[in-house]
Structures are given as structure tokens and as C-alpha cells.
Specification:
The chain is α+β, with helices and mostly antiparallel strands. About 35% of the residues lie in helices and about 20% in strands.
């Protein structure tokens, strides 16, 4: 049992560290050097280790958990975490202001609060008697996942609140909403560590934050530089301990006083014109921030006005998100080179002078095909404008012709494969040249990477670097060769070793039972995507049953068009392809059972017997999960829109499928509607 002096010292150290954290993360005003902070932290940890009876769950040293979790439990939100309605123009914001005026039966002007919209992961935080007890992800808006242990590792998140900051004791229960994110500098730090560990880099800060928060091992999360900004306090303005907080601006100030990090870049605006000015200002200033923001959130300031307007099933009527136009940058095309894909496609790729764009360094961009190069008149040496589609995929938008000089050179597509030298043919009616050598090392590499990918055979550890080593050592020429690999030969590969080799072989062995639909997708038949593979196997049951199936027979499958049918029939007619399938079967890979169609629930529901097409990125579902939910309820999926399509489910950044649906008069549904249907 520790004596009183030791207990007092521990309390003093905890309070000092909390004070330093508050000034660093909330006030952005560090009070001490890192060395002093580290010394205090080490002293506190040593005292707690020597006196276990003094340990406390709200101690700064207790952020990192113990054993690895097996999964996340579900958490029902006290109030739904609704999505926000998006706007992309000032006219849409003016229309929002007019809707507010009609809803409140007032001419205004109205008081708004404008806040930067973070590109992160929404969370709900619960505090009891001033101590953090639970945190959950947004999930579907009504139910999220319990990620308390991981949230405790976020240094900016207070484990114990500061009641003295607000001049009163906190409410017995507080529920706060916030956004977990990673800064751009944090992403660079995390990716440097991943590179040292031989792991692929994170694509962007949002992926890094979301992936880190959903790790089952909180000790790994603790090593990720996650941050959080909080923006909402449930119960504010209602009768009870928070009833004197009547404006959202007061809520933000209160959150900051009791220890929560609040984004400092918010403004109280009188009237929509001040909101528009805030949006214009940050559309240009956002690039100077160390974190990604893709827009502005506009909210009514008076909480009583919010309650008067209420919400729809999808969005609050008192708020709107304004999305910035895509970020762009100017850079030079250093050269154009050819990449060869798994189907032999020769894709021209621009090597760019590295430039910062939307939080990442961009040095390459696909030019798609030679017709695209000719249409935009892109030359090596040109200065070009690049953007990121959905702030993710870089693309060359246009050439700065005024900056072109005599040193800029035209690019000519090669007539032979740059990797193996075989003829690069461009079939009539197509825009892409293809290497005609199926044994081309580049094609072999890309086919193996695709075969091992998550939606195909899901072979963990068989990434590009390992595939390169296997191909270069001539241990593997086809997917079937993977199942004949021996421990000794794999262990001799660079950076492998016996343990890594054993793990890889175990993953390969486990992949044998992934199922015929995933195997068919993994074979990389041109045009046969994941959904098409599922439809085909649900009809035939076994890949071997496809031998001899003509294109007309395949086209009779609901959801399979003539292009897919012809491509699959030609693949099954190929001697080398049939030999590959036979070798996979001999290795014990599951090629499927008897013919079995998807069982359709007899219960009437919006999905039953309807054909769906998915496009765009969904917020609460991966494509796979959304497709599984549709099929589980008796729906069907197709990869393309036609007159037979019943619904197109769209998310953010939808592609041409949405436009095609509207042309054909096919009904389109957004994610909020999809969520409502799932409840029926």
C-alpha cells in the first residue's frame, strides 16, 4: 500500500500531464518541451508500476489496453448520427436559407455557425461523472461499433474532464460527437513507419484514421498519430444541467472549456451572405492546413430553431454541407511510360514532377489510352492541370498550351509489348492495345496479384513484392503453381525467412476453400467482375460445368450481357485456361458443387426479386457488404444498367451508371433510402 506522500505525488503528476495535454491539444499553446513531458510521464508510470493500488482508469498512462479483442460489439446511439445533405454551389446554399425561412415562418436573417468539414471518421463519446467510459463509431447512424479501447489511445481525447474550466461540475452523463482524423504530417510519419515494416502505405489520411480506429489490437492504434475535433453535445438547450446552453456557439465554447479539442476555424455568421464568404475564403485557404477538409458544415446557431425545424429520416433540416470543388495542382509531365495489366492492356501513365494534392504527394497519373492522349494533346514535357476524382484518384484534366515549348515531345503508343516484345494488337472497335503473349511476365504478375486480392482468393501476405520475387525466381508461372510451392524454396526468397514462408503457405492452403465464385473472379476473365462471377456460379454451381457453355447459353443468365458471355466462353475454350483449371482442381482448390440458385425469401420486401446496380462510394457500407445485404433479402445484382434494372443504389462520386439510369428512367436510391429499406 502506497503512503500518502506517494499518492499525492501521483495525483500531482496526473494533473500536470492533463494540463499539458489540454494546452497542447485544445489550446494549441504548448507549456513544456517534449523532454519535460516525457520525463513526467516516465515518472508517473514508474510510480504506478511500483504501487499498483494507485492505478486509475483515468490516468494518462492507461490509454493503451491489454489483450487483443476478437471483435467489436454493437452500440446503440442515444440519438441517431444523421448524415448531412450535400450542396455543391452557392445557389444550393441560398435555397437552403430559403427553406429555413419557410420552416421558421420568418424572413431572417438567421444566425448560422460555419465549421470546416473534416475528412475523417465520426464517433460518439460517452462520459459519466466526468470520466470517459465508452466510444463508438457512427455505423449506420443508429448503431455503431464499440471502439472505446482504441479511442483511449488518442492523446487529444480527454479521459477526465475539466469541470473547473466551465466553473461548474459536469452533468452526470455527457454524450459528445466528434471526428477522428489524421493530419497530413501524421500520415507521412505513419507511412514512413509502414515502409520500414515492409507494409504498403496508406492511400490518404481518412483511410489511415478509419483503419487505425478499427484495429483489434489497441497497442497498434496507440502508435498511430490520430487526432480528434469535437462539435456536438447531446442534451444542450434541453431542461436539465445543460439548459443554459441555448446556442451552438455556446456549446463549442463549453466543450473547449471542459477539455475537448474543438476546431478553431469556425465562425458565427449573421445571414447566409456571411456564410458564403466563409466558404469562399476557406476554398482557397484550406491548402495551408495540416489536415484534409472537403467542405464547410453550415448549422443554425439557435438550438430552439433546430428543434422547430426537426429532421427528415435522412438529414437534419437545420444543417447543410457545402462541398468544395476538387483540388487541383499544376505540374509537368516528365515522361510517359506503358504499364501492362493482367489482361494484357497497355496503359499509358504520366510520370509527373511530384506535387502535393489533397494531402498526398502525386507523381503518377493514368492517361487511360492513346485516344485520350490525342484528345487532350498531352505531350512529354507539357505543363498540365491535375485533379483528384473524389479527392482520391489523380487525373490529368488539361494541358497549359501557353507554356508549351519546342522541347515537348509527342508520345507514340508502341506496337509491341514493352515488357516481352510480343505484338500489341488493338482489336477493331476498341481503344486499348493489348499484349498478345499470355505468358508475358507483366501479365503473369498482375494476374497473380488479382488472384490473391481480397475479393478473390484473399491470400494475405501475397502482395506485389512477394509476387515479384516468385515470378523472378521462376517458382510461379500460373495461379496453380502457388499450390505446389515448398517451404524451403519460398524461405530462400529475399526478405522472407522460414516463419514468413510458413505463414504464406498456410494462407495459400486456406484459400483453397474460398468458393467457386471467388475463384472464377480470381481467374481474371476479362469483363467478369465479382457480381458476374456470383451470378454465373449461382446458375452453374461448378466452374467445370462452364466448359462447353456457349455465349448464348451464358447470356441467358439474368444479369449477364453479351460482352461478358462472349468473353467467358472464349476463356473456357482456351486450352491453356482449361489446363489451369484442371491443375487447380488437382491441387484441391474448391471449384464448386452442384448447381444452386440463390434462395429468395418469400417475405415481401423492397429487395425481393429486384435487380440492383451499385455505383459510387457508400459511407456506411463497403460494396461487398451492401451487395450481401441485397442478396440476403432476395435481391439480384448486375454490373451494368439496362432497361431490366430496377434500382441503382448510388453513393458519393457516382460514375456513368447513375447518368445512364436517369437516361433510361431507372429509379435511383441514395444510401439513406437504402438504410430505411434494410429496416423493413
Amino acid at each position: 500500500m502506497a503512503d500518502k506522500d506517494t499518492a499525492k505525488k501521483v495525483d500531482e503528476l496526473r494533473e500536470r500531464i492533463r494540463e499539458l495535454d489540454y494546452h497542447y491539444y485544445v489550446l494549441d499553446n504548448p507549456l513544456a518541451e517534449d523532454t519535460e513531458y516525457d520525463s513526467l510521464y516516465a515518472e508517473l508510470r514508474a510510480l504506478e508500476d511500483a504501487h499498483p493500488d494507485l492505478r486509475s482508469p483515468d490516468s494518462p498512462t492507461r490509454r493503451i489496453g491489454g489483450q487483443v479483442l476478437e471483435g467489436f460489439s454493437a452500440v446503440a446511439h442515444t440519438e441517431p448520427m444523421l448524415s448531412l445533405n450535400n450542396s455543391y454551389s452557392e445557389d444550393e446554399l441560398l435555397a437552403f436559407d430559403q427553406r429555413v425561412a419557410r420552416g421558421l415562418d420568418s424572413d431572417g436573417p438567421f444566425e448560422y455557425v460555419a465549421e470546416l468539414k473534416l475528412d475523417g471518421l465520426g464517433v460518439s463519446l460517452r462520459y459519466e461523472n466526468g470520466e470517459f467510459v465508452r466510444g463508438a463509431t457512427r455505423g449506420d447512424g443508429k448503431t455503431g461499433e464499440d471502439v472505446t479501447r482504441n479511442l483511449r489511445t488518442v492523446r487529444a481525447l480527454p479521459l477526465k474532464l475539466r469541470p473547473e474550466g466551465a466553473g461548474r461540475s459536469p452533468a452526470p452523463v455527457l454524450e459528445v460527437r466528434g471526428e477522428v482524423h489524421m493530419t497530413r504530417s501524421g500520415l507521412e510519419l505513419a507511412n514512413r513507419q509502414r515502409e520500414q515494416d515492409g507494409e504498403p502505405p496508406f492511400a490518404n489520411p481518412r483511410n489511415a484514421a478509419a483503419g487505425s480506429l478499427r484495429l483489434l489490437d489497441s497497442t497498434i492504434t496507440a502508435g498511430r498519430p490520430l487526432r480528434i475535433f469535437c462539435y456536438q453535445l447531446l442534451g444542450a438547450g434541453h431542461s436539465g444541467p445543460l439548459e443554459d446552453l441555448v446556442d451552438h456557439s455556446q456549446v463549442l465554447e463549453y466543450l473547449k472549456k471542459i477539455g475537448f479539442p474543438v476546431n478553431p476555424h469556425w465562425r458565427k455568421c449573421l445571414g447566409i451572405n456571411e456564410v458564403l464568404k466563409f466558404c469562399r475564403d476557406w476554398a482557397t485557404k484550406r491548402t495551408k492546413l495540416d489536415y484534409n477538409t472537403d467542405g464547410v458544415v453550415i448549422k443554425l446557431n439557435k438550438l430552439s430553431d433546430r428543434r422547430a425545424l426537426g429532421t427528415t429520416a435522412k438529414f437534419p433540416r437545420w444543417a447543410m454541407a457545402y462541398k468544395f470543388a476538387a483540388e487541383w495542382a499544376r505540374t509537368r509531365v516528365k515522361s510517359i511510360e506503358i504499364q501492362v495489366g493482367r489482361t494484357g492492356a497497355l496503359t499509358p501513365t504520366a510520370n509527373l514532377e511530384p506535387v502535393q494534392l489533397a494531402g498526398t504527394t502525386v507523381s503518377r497519373a493514368s492517361l487511360h489510352n492513346e485516344e485520350e492522349i490525342e484528345r487532350k494533346d498531352i505531350r512529354q514535357g507539357d505543363w498540365v492541370r491535375i485533379e483528384k476524382g473524389g479527392d482520391i484518384i489523380p487525373k490529368v484534366v488539361e494541358v497549359d498550351f501557353d507554356a508549351r515549348d519546342e522541347h515537348c515531345k509527342n508520345f507514340e503508343m508502341p506496337s509491341t509489348c514493352p515488357v516481352c516484345g510480343a505484338l500489341a494488337d488493338k482489336p477493331e472497335g476498341e481503344v486499348i492495345r493489348r499484349c498478345t503473349n499470355a505468358s508475358c511476365p507483366a501479365q503473369v504478375r498482375e494476374r497473380l496479384i488479382h488472384f490473391a486480392s481480397r475479393n478473390a482468393m484473399d491470400i494475405q501476405g501475397l502482395g506485389p513484392a512477394v509476387v515479384d520475387a516468385l515470378v523472378e525466381s521462376e517458382l510461379v508461372h500460373t495461379a496453380a503453381d502457388l499450390y505446389r510451392l515448398e517451404l524451403e524454396s519460398v524461405a530462400e526468397l529475399e526478405r522472407m525467412g522460414e516463419k514468413s514462408a510458413a505463414n504464406l503457405l498456410a494462407e495459400i492452403e486456406q484459400s483453397k476453400g474460398r468458393g467457386a465464385d471467388r475463384l472464377l473472379f480470381g481467374l481474371g476473365v476479362r469483363f467478369v467482375g465479382q457480381i458476374a462471377a456470383e451470378l454465373i456460379i449461382s446458375r452453374y454451381g461448378n466452374i467445370l460445368a462452364l466448359e462447353g457453355a456457349g455465349s448464348e447459353e451464358l447470356e441467358a443468365i439474368d444479369g449477364i450481357g453479351p460482352v461478358i458471355a462472349r468473353s467467358l466462353a472464349a476463356f473456357m475454350d482456351g486450352k491453356e485456361n482449361r489446363e489451369l483449371i484442371d491443375k487447380l482442381a488437382a491441387a484441391g482448390v474448391d471449384l464448386g458443387g452442384e448447381s444452386a440458385t440463390v434462395e429468395v425469401p418469400s417475405e415481401s420486401n423492397p429487395f425481393n426479386g429486384k435487380k440492383f446496380v451499385l455505383t459510387g462510394a457508400l459511407e456506411n457500407f463497403s460494396r461487398d457488404k451492401a451487395a450481401a445485404e441485397i442478396k440476403r433479402r432476395g435481391g439480384k445484382l448486375s454490373g451494368s444498367v439496362s432497361g431490366k434494372t430496377d434500382y441503382v443504389l448510388y453513393g458519393s462520386e457516382p460514375g456513368s451508371k447513375l447518368a445512364r439510369a436517369r437516361e433510361l428512367g431507372v429509379e435511383t436510391i441514395d444510401e439513406a433510402t437504402f438504410l430505411e429499406w434494410l429496416k423493413q
